[in-house]
Amino acid sequence: MKEDILKALEFPRVMIRENVDLRSCRFNGQYVGELGCKLCNAATECKWLTQHDEFSSLSQKPLAEIATALEFAMHFVEALVMESDHESEVCRCEACRWLRGARETVADIHHDSNGSIE
Ligand SMILES: [Zn+2]
Q1: Is residue 67 classed exposed, middle or buried when 0-12, 13-18 and 19+ CB atoms within 10 A define those classes?
Q2: Which residues keep their CB under 5 angstroms from ion ligand 1?
Q3: Which of 6, 9, 39, 64 is close enough to 117 for a disulfide, judged by CB 3.0 to 4.6 Å?
Q4: What is the pLDDT of residues 36-82, one digit of tens each?
Q5: Within 10 A of 7 (CB to CB), how many other CB atoms are there?
Q6: Cα of 73 to ligand 1 centre, how many Å?
Q7: CA distances from 114 to 73, 102, 108, 117 (A)
């Protein structure tokens, strides 16, 4: 289960990186905390990227935490494909295919844990 989630986080990591607007970022996309990033529109995405990048030893983190990371990524990708008018239930593009897989994984997580992953 954990392996599936870690694998599922690879695609949104790339997608979020490509879609975060860093033109006005003073920190070159490095999340520096609430204070430095407070006024930035991309703070949530940068925080996610910083906490869930390839080097953040995700496999050591509790399942609940990476499950939350996957749900965040799912909402991000969902918003993107909706903006572009994809029908994510049937569309064959990579983002929509990922989204369907992610929805299943998230449903599995909640099913396995009877709705509670705390
Ligand atoms: Zn699509």
Answers
A1: buried
A2: 86, 91, 93, 96
A3: 64
A4: 998 898 999 999 998 998 777 888 999 999 999 999 999 999 999 99
A5: 11
A6: 16
A7: 22, 18, 10, 8
